[in-house]
Amino acid sequence: MHYCIQKTGELYTMPPHRGHLPQVEQPASLAELARTAIERAILAGTYLPGERLVEERLCEHLGISRPPLREALRQLSFTGIVEHTPRKGVRVMAMTQHDVYEILTFRRELERMALRLALPGLDPGRLDECRAALERMWPVAEAGDEGGLVAAGFEFHLSVIRLAHHKRIEQAFRSMSLQLQLCMAMNNRVRRDVEDLKGNVQRHEELLAVIVTEDRDRIEAAFDAHGNATFVRASLDELEGGSNQSAKWFAGFLDRH
Q: Which of 87, 116, 130, 244 could pair with 159 in a Cys bridge, judged by C-beta atoms 3.0 to 4.6 Å apart?
């Protein structure tokens, strides 16, 4: 899925064509809008983990000069979604098995901690935020916007984190925003054979339905079964750079699923 920036400064989707981005049209901030366009393209799978981002091509596709592009890439490097490699330029962050292990366990423990603190007696207002985040996923899925759905899915999970009323847990979750989304995007790609974008939203609906029961055991089981097993199996086959810790965790996870 491609993204173009309108004169209003908003993104709209363009038909997918791997390796190409639409031009940026008279935005208020070229660097910020270019950053958003590149970020969405990465989350949509236009550029894959480990793939080099060639400045000349990006300038051509976005219709901007090198200075704002370099600023956009610099901003993205702070989030961990792209990395600068000596003599190789800028590339999408390459994921190792150990990276996936760290990101999945980080997310798992923060979500569990937040829900343990939120239960019993979930805040009705915060639950309404979860429902609103879920509703925002539907039009994105219906538009076929893969990158946008990853971002919307992250916002849903953030709303679940917010059930705890715990600013530091929320800040920790936000601090890993794009790395978490990159992992979510990889998960979505390996699930394409078993789930379309609407199915993705339905899976999140089912998760929220379990959360409102306030049954802690059911909730934790639902989070553990929230589509990660498919991704973990693919990660073991496709990703290099494992460690003793990641191998042990992956083996235990797959034994339970």
A: 130
- Tell me, yes or no, if the pTM score tops 0.70: yes
What is the number of domains present in the chain? Answer: 2
- Final residue in a domain of this structure, among 74, 92, 110: 92
Can you give the residue range of the structural domain that contains 136?
97-256
Helix (H, G, I), strand (E, B) or coil at 16: coil
| Residue located via tokens 């990006």 | 58
- 164 and 62 share one domain: no
For residue 8, the model assigns a pLDDT of: 46
Residues 77 and 59 in one domain: yes
User: Which residues face 12 on adjacent strands?
Assistant: 4
Are both 88 and 106 inside the same structural domain? no
Residue 186 near residue 95 (C-beta atoms within 8 A): yes
Q: What angle do CA 109, 49, 16 make, to 5 degrees?
A: 110
Q: Which two tokens stand for residue 163?
A: 């059930």
What pLDDT shows up at residue 7?
44
Can you name the residues that pair with 90 across neighbouring β-strands? 53, 84
Residue 5 clears pLDDT 60, i.e. is over it: no
DSSP 39: H
Q: In angstroms, how far apart are the furthest CA atoms of the chain?
A: 55
Q: Each residue of 114-136: pLDDT tens digit?
A: 999 999 999 999 999 999 999 99
**What is the number of alpha carbons within 13 Å of residue 178 lying toward its C-beta?**
21
Q: What is the CATH number of the domain that holds 80?
A: 1.10.10.10
CATH number for the domain spanning 210: value is 1.20.120.530
- The separation between the first and the last C-alpha atoms of the chain, rounded to the nearest angstrom, is 32
d(CA 89, CA 99): 21
% helix, strand, coil for the chain, step of 5 = 65, 5, 25
